[in-house]
Amino acid sequence: MAQMWRCSGLRWSGDGLVLAWEGGRGSALVWGKRVGFAVPEGSGRVCVGARGHACPVRAAVPGRGTGARCEECARLDRAHSVAADTIADDPRPYRVYLAWFGPGLVKVGITAVERGPARLLEQGAICFSWLGTGPLMAARRTEEMLRAALGVPDRIAYAEKRAVRARLPGTAEERAAEVRALHRRAVALDRWPESLRAEPCEVVDQVRAFRIEGVPAAFGEVTELVPGGAIGGKLVAAAGPDLHLAVRGRGVVVLDTRLIRGWGLVPSLRDDDELALPVREFRQEQDGLF
User: At what angle are helices 136-150 and 172-187 packed, to 10 degrees?
Assistant: First the structure.
């Protein structure tokens, strides 16, 4: 039997996309090349642990969940999370950003300066602009201020992001319009923390990074992995955790890589494309959910 590797997630970097595996290994993903794997019969999905440590009981977790953690490990992970607002003494500088995912979908968020644009790639932001830089708590207060004063959310569901990708404006200038307008409103507010330095509006467009222009609309998305299942197709685009695979004879399908974390995987035995996993087909009236 082929060696089984257990996936720990998808990484975006300046060098491209990498599927990470337990033990520190990684598999680079190449645009236009086949991505394929199988789930061995009789296997199961186990908790990926927390903060770089394995789950002590290797607890089983549901196939449809994107968190891939048992209740205890999820609690431990959030107990040391900037996103969960449980860390107040992080000395690193942070940036506040505005991210746009499609018409009407703009959010505010924060990320450590040292991470650069990685957080925006991980979230699948079509374009973004920095808004300000400063200490963590000043960045957090600014985020909360924009939510309260301008009604800007700090979270947008991935289902909503996928639903608009097939209907994006055709030019970078059009895609940047909502971010520019919101940036102007944000810097005009008079309640900014003194320790936060405002940043000029310089919109970064990530359409080319995601390779989403000209890609056929997807017919559906994988809902979960199952023992005995398999998938194989050409990587045509990606955004955030989503891989968009062209499966010969079926079309483009979306695979949320958060669903494969915690599964032990083996290379597919077939050389051609395949799709033997549960798929939810998109409604036709959504006109090609990317």
Answer: 100
